[in-house]
Design brief:
290 residues, alpha/beta, 11 helices, 40% helix
């Protein structure tokens, strides 16, 4: 299997370990953006001057191509959610080292399977639907963000998949690494989308508009548009918000009477309910103080 790594990370020890599991193509950022059909492994922020900007370019390319961007050794205390255009924050926090990993949501894996792979951090985010691996305290160690069912995805992991350790079972490490490197969205129609599909709001916009409409108790596109950049890494004008509201109404088969309950169910299924409640509480407190 062929895998992309940025040439500025070529001399890192992790790259030499990956070479034992995959055929690596060392490329520039611009070259990576122009290549289709290959996963990309990003070795945290090592050697990267602009982490957020670089990750955003790679993530958007993989979303479009239906492939995976795998972020190994992600930086701590950095909002990776901002870098990958997620509607909520994704932050890695250091914790005591552990070798326990229970994979979740991988096709072909037994629900009770456990891997022995060293990690020393946990991922904090309200993207519960994207959790793909947890530690012995149910902390997230592998998270997937996929903006649309037909898009590629970003995998963020604190598991030391490119390190040797007495706390890691080598067979487990290589097995999980292979699962990530060979991931591909078979439903991807990115290259065959019609103009109408391309102009429709993507899932991150729908999620954000749904959360704001629920939190504000309002469908005013101007009000929701003005609040977008406050709570999300998105900037949408009122027309885009209105289009998203119309799309949500169709997708959810919602009426004026059941709009709130339909939104609440949609947000919960997307794994954003705790974040929506947090925004709602902030707004209620602000209103009470005004």
């Amino acid at each position: 299997m062929k895998t992309l790594i940025l040439d500025i990370q070529k001399d890192l020890f992790e790259s030499s370990i990956l070479e034992q599991s995959a055929e690596i193509l060392f490329v520039s950022v611009d070259e990576a953006i122009g290549m289709k059909g290959f996963p990309c492994v990003f070795l945290g922020s090592k050697g990267i001057d602009d982490f957020t900007g670089t990750v955003r370019k790679l993530a958007r390319t993989n979303y479009q191509n239906g492939t995976g961007l795998i972020i190994i050794n992600p930086p701590t205390d950095t909002d990776i959610g901002n870098a990958i255009d997620a509607p909520v924050s994704i932050i890695v926090k250091k914790r005591k080292a552990s070798s326990f990993c229970k994979p979740i949501g991988f096709d072909g894996l037994d629900a009770e399977s456990k891997y022995e792979i060293w990690s020393d951090g946990a991922i904090e985010s309200s993207l519960n639907s994207g959790v793909m691996g947890v530690d012995d305290n149910k902390g997230t160690v592998l998270l997937k963000y996929q903006p649309k069912n037909t898009s590629g995805a970003v995998f963020i992991t604190t598991l030391k998949l490119l390190s040797y350790s007495g706390m890691t079972n080598e067979s487990d490490r290589e097995s999980l690494l292979k699962l990530l490197l060979t991931w591909e969205n078979k439903q991807s129609f990115a290259n065959a989308e019609t103009t109408e599909d391309a102009e429709s709001p993507d899932e991150s916009v729908l999620h954000s508009v749904a959360i704001l409409s629920f939190s504000y108790g309002s469908n005013d596109p101007n009000k929701l548009s003005a609040a977008m950049s406050r709570f999300f890494t998105l900037n949408c004008d009122a027309d885009t918000v209105l289009q998203a509201l119309d799309q949500l109404s169709i997708n959810l088969n919602a009426t004026k009477e059941n709009w709130t309950s339909k939104l609440e169910e949609y947000i919960d299924q997307a794994g954003h309910y705790s974040y929506a409640r947090e925004i709602k509480e902030i707004l209620e407190d602000e209103e009470a103080d005004s």
